[in-house]
Automatic annotation (TrEMBL), chain A:
Protein name: V-type proton ATPase subunit F
Pfam families, sorted: ATP-synt_F (PF01990)
PANTHER family: V-TYPE PROTON ATPASE SUBUNIT F, VACUOLAR ATP SYNTHASE SUBUNIT F
Keyword Ion transport part of the UniProt annotation: yes
Family: Belongs to the V-ATPase F subunit family.
GO cellular component: plasma membrane; proton-transporting V-type ATPase, V1 domain
InterPro entries recorded: ATPase_V1-cplx_f_g_su, ATPase_V1-cplx_fsu_euk, ATPase_V1_fsu_sf
Assembly, per entry: V-ATPase is a heteromultimeric enzyme made up of two complexes: the ATP-hydrolytic V1 complex and the proton translocation V0 complex.
Species the sequence originates in: Paramormyrops kingsleyae
GO BP, sorted A to Z: apical protein localization; Kupffer's vesicle development; notochord cell vacuolation; regulation of cell population proliferation; regulation of cilium assembly; regulation of heart looping; retina development in camera-type eye
Described purpose of this protein according to its UniProt entry: Subunit of the V1 complex of vacuolar(H+)-ATPase (V-ATPase), a multisubunit enzyme composed of a peripheral complex (V1) that hydrolyzes ATP and a membrane integral complex (V0) that translocates protons. V-ATPase is responsible for acidifying and maintaining the pH of intracellular compartments and in some cell types, is targeted to the plasma membrane, where it is responsible for acidifying the extracellular environment.
Keywords for the protein's UniProt record, in alphabetical order: Hydrogen ion transport, Ion transport, Transport
From TrEMBL, chain B:
GO biological process, one term: vacuolar proton-transporting V-type ATPase complex assembly
Keywords: Coiled coil, Cytoplasmic vesicle, Endoplasmic reticulum, Endosome, Lysosome
Composition skew (Basic and acidic residues), residue ranges: 82-97
InterPro entries: Vma22/CCDC115
Source species: Paramormyrops kingsleyae
One of the Pfam families matching this protein, by short name: Vma22_CCDC115
Main subcellular location of this protein, as a coarse class: cytoplasm
Protein name: Vacuolar ATPase assembly protein VMA22
Region listing for Disordered, in residue ranges: 82-126
Subcellular location: Cytoplasmic vesicle, COPI-coated vesicle; Endoplasmic reticulum-Golgi intermediate compartment; Endosome; Lysosome
Annotated Gene Ontology cellular component terms: COPI-coated vesicle; endoplasmic reticulum-Golgi intermediate compartment; endosome; lysosome
Oligomer status and interactors: Accessory component of the multisubunit proton-transporting vacuolar (V)-ATPase protein pump.
Amino acid sequence: MAGRGKLIAVIGDEDTCTGFLLGGVGELNKNRKPNFLVVEKDTSITEIEETFKSFLARDDIGIILINQFIAEMIRHAIDGHMLSIPAVLEIPSKEHPYDASKDSILRRAKGMFSAEDFR
Amino acid sequence: MKDDVSLRLDGCLLRFMDQLESLEEKRQRFNSLIEQGWFSISKARYAMGNKQVSALQYGSEIQPQVRVCVRELTGGVTEFQAEREETQGSEDPKTKDDVEDCGPMEGGLRRRTTAKTKNPQEEPVPVKECVSKDDVRLESKGLQRHQDPLKWFGILVPQSLKQAQVAFRQVIELSAEIAALQGAVISTREELHNLLEEKRRQSH
């Protein structure tokens, strides 16, 4: 598996998941576990968080794409992930455009320029 | 000594700014491409019917066509590169047979002519052999069905769904580039932080 490269996982609304699966990122492994989660109105935050954590724990996943409005629901879990692999990318959704000020990576980068650093 | 640290700090800060600028550009391209993809999906849904393009149509067997090669470079920087497995398969003669069976696919016109040229060659072949070839074709068709996610939504899918697929393929490649850049931004930020600390220690 390591020689073949890693997978891209997706947590998003139906259209986002459909698009990325059309692009060819989807996988159902031998245990029938998918590398994507379609978040619908009735999907609980616990389920989203558990799926996100299970993706973090999988060593065959290199990038996790997550709609920003879903990332907002599990912000604490995303902020707690400090490793470079898997990389977490916050992406826009149809109803919620991308807001750079909410992105955990850019917020970390912005934190560089606080008054404390230049004292 | 202090000037040396200041110079390194300046260089690091400039690199950091460049990386942020590049990240911003890639993000804009990513956002416009993904919007294009959603728009094409919506058009396909309008053409095919509301329930024809949804999660219910996902295949029962899903195999990845794209993987990311992850390499850890020196300095804690991680490089991500999207690699499409499909390109190897497209050179395979099996795929030609698949397209013959399915008819209108991308570049169908060119392939239809190959089908016509093949038919006269197959005429003198005994019937038994033809049947066995058809079986092979069906098998390869079955494999292709698993591989090409477009076929989850039907054989004759609208052009807009194919456009959506193209847009999302570009989005996937960009997402690998953005992931690599994000890693580089975080790494440069760490370096910048360390240099600031060093400068502070020297000034005291």
